[in-house]
Design brief:
The protein is an all-alpha fold. It is built from 15 helices and no strands.
């Protein structure tokens, strides 16, 4: 059973530390947003505060991967956790003393987002140093489950604390969560693989990008990760609420989001249960499951709630979102396992940072693109186009000879 891995001290330290970090990652953005609301922020101000956190995360994630490969991944995890904790302590102190401003709050968000950019690649690359090769799949499954549970619980706890004790206390709680993660990470093993031959961090960054580009199965799967997040952000996160408003309502849309989250947890366990039977090329087809909720949303848009039962649409769209989340994990878990097993240890941080960047970048691009596209061709056609794009890219990557060769071991330990 995967849970038996928690008896291994090194993996337990990594898993528990990451769990607390993901709790903080779910709690911190919510606390920062409501702190801005408490300061009288309007929609424009809130957007700037959110962007102040997300932009450093996207811009610095490649640098984070390069640092993880050049220096101690354990040290990067500890320092980034303390930086996250310190930024929230500062915000909480200013908030509780009524000295906070929107500018200082945005600065806190920027520091917090930058710390996350260094934390993610380092802790992902640490996985291979904490478990034997034959347990990498189980370790990846538990890591994905811990991440999803941490984000959900962190968001829920953040909402509860903000609602009962205020945003200042929520920021302090978030700081405490990150501090616990930093303390737990001290138990991680020292040492590990390092990058070779780089004269500087920027040189390491360039060699990492070159490695991913030359390793075509990595470049192809990164493109698929970008496409999935592009279509999800534009079709589900932007257009989805508009469809819900016209059909089954905002409350049920929230429940649909909860069902979607359950799909992430179920999908991770299912991918783990399939074990070696799930090849990477077949896993890539799992990403195509996003087409299901997109098509259903296109059908639901503009329908008359008197003629079409709103609960009917809610049921099918929620089921589609569940399937899309399962498909995402069916794609992500095998990909992470292959990366852990076949990428040289000295490149792991940079490879994970490139995959993370592909996913992160897809979100703002999708959010910005979908609006003009709906104005040009209409909402149903836009949703259908996004569904077709996801399916086309997933099939193309699955049929790629380089991706299929990974399953035969011919691309193993590329260099």
């Amino acid at each position: 059973m995967p849970w038996s891995l928690l008896r291994t001290p090194a993996f337990r330290a990594l898993w528990v530390g990451r769990l607390f970090s993901w709790l903080g990652s779910g709690l911190a953005p919510l606390a920062i947003v409501f702190a801005a609301v408490d300061l009288g922020a309007d929609a424009v101000d809130l957007g700037l505060v959110v962007v102040a956190r997300s932009v450093p995360n996207i811009v610095l994630v490649l640098v984070g991967g390069a640092l993880a490969d050049r220096f101690s991944k354990r040290l990067v995890a500890i320092v980034s956790s303390w930086v996250s904790a310190g930024s929230l302590v500062a915000a909480a102190a200013l908030m509780l003393t009524q000295s906070e401003t929107l500018v200082s709050l945005a600065a806190v968000g920027a520091v917090n987002g930058a710390a996350a950019a260094f934390f993610g690649p380092a802790t992902s690359a640490l996985l291979r140093e904490t478990v034997p090769d034959d347990r990498l799949r189980d370790a990846t499954v538990l890591s994905r489950v811990g991440m999803n549970v941490g984000l959900v619980v962190g968001t829920a706890v953040g909402g509860a604390v903000v609602g009962t004790a205020g945003s200042g206390v929520a920021l302090a709680v978030g700081a405490g969560v990150f501090a616990v993660a930093a303390v737990v990470f001290v138990r991680l093993p020292r040492g590990g693989a390092r990058a070779s031959g780089g004269t500087s961090v920027m040189s390491d960054l360039g060699s990492g990008l070159g490695f991913v580009w030359r390793t075509r199965w990595l470049a192809s799967t990164a493109a698929l990760a970008f496409t999935f997040q592009f279509a999800f952000a534009g079709g589900v996160q932007v257009v989805g609420p508009l469809v819900a408003d016209q059909s089954f309502g905002r409350l049920l849309w929230g429940f649909a989001g909860a069902v979607q989250t359950l799909g992430l947890i179920a999908g991770a366990f299912w991918a783990g249960a399939l074990r070696g039977r799930l090849r990477l090329w077949a896993a890539c087809l799992g990403a195509a499951a996003l087409a299901l909720p997109l098509v259903l949303l296109s059908f639901a848009y503009g329908t008359d709630p008197v003629v079409f039962d709103p609960l009917h649409w809610f049921f099918w769209i929620a089921l589609g979102l569940f399937a899309a989340s399962v498909g995402l994990e069916i794609f992500t878990v095998p990909l992470d396992v292959v990366v852990q097993r076949q990428v040289p240890g000295a490149y792991l941080g940079r490879v994970f940072s490139c995959l993370t960047l592909a996913s992160l970048a897809g979100v703002p691009v999708g959010e910005v693109t979908v609006g003009p596209l709906t104005e040009l061709i209409g909402t149903p056609a836009t949703l259908a186009a996004l569904a077709g794009l996801v399916v086309a890219v997933a099939v193309a990557v699955a049929l790629s000879s380089r991706v299929r060769r990974v399953d035969t071991g011919q691309e193993a330990r590329v260099s």
